[in-house]
Amino acid sequence: MNYCSHCGSTVVSRIPPGDSRPRYICEECGTIHYQNPRVVTGCLVTFEDRVLLAQRAIAPRQGFWTLPAGFLENGETAAAGAARETLEEACAEVNILELYTMFSLPHINQIYCFFRAELTRPDFAAGTESLDVRLVTEAEIPWDQLAFPVVSDTLRFYFSDRQTGQFRARALDVIRPPRPPKA
Amino acid sequence: MNYCSHCGSTVVSRIPPGDSRPRYICEECGTIHYQNPRVVTGCLVTFEDRVLLAQRAIAPRQGFWTLPAGFLENGETAAAGAARETLEEACAEVNILELYTMFSLPHINQIYCFFRAELTRPDFAAGTESLDVRLVTEAEIPWDQLAFPVVSDTLRFYFSDRQTGQFRARALDVIRPPRPPKA
User: Fold this and answer.
1) Residues with Cβ within 8 Å of residue A3, at least 6 apart in sequence
2) Which stretches of chain A are DSSP H helices?
3) How confident is the model at residue B8 (pLDDT cuts 50, 70, 90)?
4) Is pLDDT of B37 > 90?
5) Which residues of chain A neighbour B75 with C-beta distances below 8 Å?
């Protein structure tokens, strides 16, 4: 951040009075520009004994398989965002059941939420951000071709919980070293 | 948003190619300035049969009682943010147990998370954003003096679940009409 989005003056980075962290501050108009984590919301969609996976058409992890998910938008509930992303990426209309996993990924400033959801009917197709979409059984999960640890963790919890029929919502932390600076 | 925080040029609001929502776009440097909900994270802190409440020293809802909570920071897990806010607002060191409630508040672009937590010892005090901090029993909860519906809902769930000893994480939506524009 170089300029104040309110008045266009240059910003400085310093700790405001009463705060403990450096913020981008406009000394011209006084605006403090807070920067906060973003929320990614998605669905673990099931139909009978199968789970809906989408193959990513875009970076990062193009060609790898994921659960439909994307950034939560302003004015949207986490559940509505999860359903919207599932419609966009897998052309699938779902019935949201319950929050299932919430991951903190502090190294990339994200909170990732997955809801359990059911397909209202077995209609789906690859959206513009997907190469392919499939309903797969547990035995068919391509464990070494999954896009992100949050996806494999959520699937592992699901298949474990499914044995008892008790699905418990979980919050987990994914701790990684910071990304290296781009060359 | 009036100016590009990257290059300082004026921004326009329009729907980027492949998108479905208007975004602030810099036509000079091409930056798309996404705006997304923020996460508030906090703790439902217990000690023996009592719950920790803090009386707000600041707007909004100054003088009303709340659970310690505040905006999640970049580089922080949701649980660590909840513990930090509890330390800042109630000078209390806590042991985080589990995610308990997650509320979507789309009218104010917030996701609110509360974790269940335990006081490691009954030491607490009002931080700079609190007028008072107290450990109260269920009978002592000032239900008509609670700051926010997410606080009263979380407390109601807690006292209900406590009867069975089974604490279930829940995701809920708080749907309100949009705020009226400021005069």
Assistant:
1) A9, A10, A11, B3, B4, B5, B6, B7, B8
2) 78-90, 149-162
3) very high
4) yes
5) 106-107, 109
Interchain contact A33–B (C-beta under 8 A): yes
Q: How does pLDDT run across B150-172, given as a tens digit for each residue?
A: 999 999 999 999 999 999 999 99
The Cα–Cα gap between A26 and A22 comes to 13
Q: Distance of CA B24 to CAs A5, A11, A36, Å?
A: 10, 19, 18
| pLDDT attached to residue B18 | 86
pLDDT at B177 > cutoff 80? no
Nearest to A125 by CA among A40, A57, A24: A57
Report the C-alpha gap between B4 and B23 in whole angstroms. 12
Cβ atoms of B46 and B86 within 8 Å: the answer is: no
Question: Tell me, what's the pLDDT at B181?
Answer: 66
Q: Does residue B8 belong to the interface with chain A, where contact is any CB pair within 8 Å?
A: yes
Q: Is A79 on the interface with B (CB under 8 A)?
A: yes
Residues of A in contact with B39 (CB under 8 A): 36-37, 39, 111
Q: Which of A39, A58, A129 is the best substitution to test chain B (most B C-beta atoms within 10 A)?
A: A39
| Amino acid at site B104 | S
Report the complex ipTM: 0.93
- Contact across the interface for A33 and B113, Cβ inside 8 Å: no
Ranges of residues in chain A whose predicted pLDDT is under 70: 178-183
Residue B152 CA from chain centroid, whole number:
13
Q: Measured over all CA atoms, what is the biggest interatomic distance in chain A, rounded to whole angstroms?
A: 61
Residue B178: pLDDT above 90?
Answer: no
Distance separating alpha carbons of residues A27 and A16, to the nearest angstrom = 11
pLDDT score for B183: 55
Tokens (6 digits) for A140: 């068919």
Buried b / exposed e over A123-143, threshold 16 CB at 10 Å, is ebebbebbeebbbeeeeebee
Rounded to whole angstroms, the Cα distance separating A66 from A40 reads 13
Find, in chain B, the residue whose alpha carbon is nearest to that of A9.
Answer: B8
Answer whether A100's CB lies under 8 Å from A158's CB.
yes
Is B74 close to A35, i.e. CB distance below 8 A?
Answer: yes
